[in-house]
């Protein structure tokens, strides 16, 4: 199949997946016991006001017509108005999503670097202490609840040792002196030229990023170790070793390029899961991201906010998966040549 054909196939698959996601979120609105019209006008509104709200929301139309309207609004970035904040959901998401993106990006960088290094070292020294450590970290990272780990880290490094700042993204003294230009605290504090504010933003980011990274590096290190070990028994590795190549050269020159597609996939999936799974971490550390926004919306029954945030996070997950598949295919094609 030509490159254009593969690209068109990828776009069609991506569009169908997004359409399915939109259909699921639309079904959530109709299966929910919360009446959006009643939530809009309040419990004490008159019957005429309630009916007017239903007409405004299009709830009197057939379900296919309602879905097309919902799809059109979603594509235009209109997710309705949040009941909790009184602001458009789109503006709330634009305000909170950069915080989640910043936290997840820092976490995946930390998790990838440590996970890859730990997995490679464990595979090169199978049966050693570093191998046992890698397997323990992997098991512990999968088993420990992330909210418990976050609370423990806050208790130890913030409450007891005073090595880390408290929850949030910035201290109060910097919150109203740094202009939010991009929504990313590190970038905004850097642009402001205030070194103290940048160091404070970095210090606030470190602890939640490490907690979130711990879960990611568990999977990355385990798969890296397994992939390297499976390649060590291949004929091309045995041939290279027979010619006198060192183990480190074989691993870094021959094995890692061959498993690059697999590693890229697992890292991208871990990154996508961090974007959608940062809810508990953001809640524990009072991180003002989309996860915490979604948690607040759930407790208040704010359906427009819930559906808008779910659709955005789900779209990011689908997009990352699609881009990863495309990149992995290009890597495999390059290796075949």
UniProtKB/TrEMBL annotation:
How does this chain sit within the bilayer? Multi-pass membrane protein
Indicate what this protein is called per its UniProt record: Peptide ABC transporter permease
Task: Tell me the superkingdom of the source.
Answer: Bacteria
Q: Which organism is it from?
A: Pararhizobium polonicum
Q: Give the stretches traversing the membrane.
A: 7-28, 103-124, 136-159, 201-220, 251-272, 303-323
InterPro entries named in the record: BPD_transp_1_N, MetI-like, MetI-like_sf
Q: Which GO terms describe its cellular component?
A: plasma membrane
Which parts of the sequence belong to the ABC transmembrane type-1 domain? 97-324
Subcellular location(s) of the protein: Cell membrane
Keyword set, alphabetical order: Cell membrane, Membrane, Transmembrane, Transmembrane helix, Transport
Single Gene Ontology MF annotation? dipeptide transmembrane transporter activity
Among its keywords, does the record have Transmembrane helix? yes
User: What does the similarity note say?
Assistant: Belongs to the binding-protein-dependent transport system permease family.
Q: Name one Pfam family in it.
A: BPD_transp_1_N
């Amino acid at each position: 199949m030509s490159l254009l054909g593969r690209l068109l196939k990828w776009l069609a698959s991506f569009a169908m997946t997004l359409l399915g996601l939109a259909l699921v979120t639309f079904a959530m609105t109709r299966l929910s016991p919360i009446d959006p019209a009643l939530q809009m006008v309040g419990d004490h509104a008159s019957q005429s006001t309630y009916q007017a709200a239903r007409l405004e929301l299009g709830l009197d139309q057939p379900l296919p017509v309602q879905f097309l309207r919902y799809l059109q609004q979603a594509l235009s970035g209109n997710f309705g108005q949040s009941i909790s904040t009184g602001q458009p959901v789109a503006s709330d998401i634009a305000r909170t999503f950069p915080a989640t993106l910043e936290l997840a990006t820092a976490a995946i960088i930390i998790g990838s670097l440590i996970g890859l290094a730990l997995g490679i070292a464990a595979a090169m020294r199978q049966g050693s202490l570093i191998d046992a450590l890698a397997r323990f970290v992997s098991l512990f990272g999968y088993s420990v609840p992330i909210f418990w780990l976050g609370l423990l880290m806050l208790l130890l490094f913030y409450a007891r040792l005073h090595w880390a700042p408290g929850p949030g993204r910035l201290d109060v003294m910097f919150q109203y002196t740094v202009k939010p230009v991009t929504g990313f605290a590190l970038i905004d504090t850097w642009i402001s030229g205030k070194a103290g504010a940048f160091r404070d933003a970095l210090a606030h980011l470190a602890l939640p990023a490490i907690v979130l990274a711990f879960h990611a590096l568990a999977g990355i290190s385990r798969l890296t170790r397994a992939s390297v070990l499976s390649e060590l028994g291949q004929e091309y590795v045995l041939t290279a070793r027979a010619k006198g190549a060192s183990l480190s050269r074989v691993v870094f020159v021959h094995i890692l390029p061959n498993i690059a597609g697999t590693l890229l996939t697992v890292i991208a999936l871990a990154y996508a899961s961090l974007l959608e799974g940062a809810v508990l971490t953001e809640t524990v550390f009072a991180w003002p991201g989309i996860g915490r926004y979604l948690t607040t919306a759930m407790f208040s029954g704010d359906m427009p906010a819930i559906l808008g945030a779910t659709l955005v996070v789900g779209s990011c997950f689908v997009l990352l998966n699609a881009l990863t598949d495309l990149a992995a295919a290009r890597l495999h094609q390059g290796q075949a040549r």
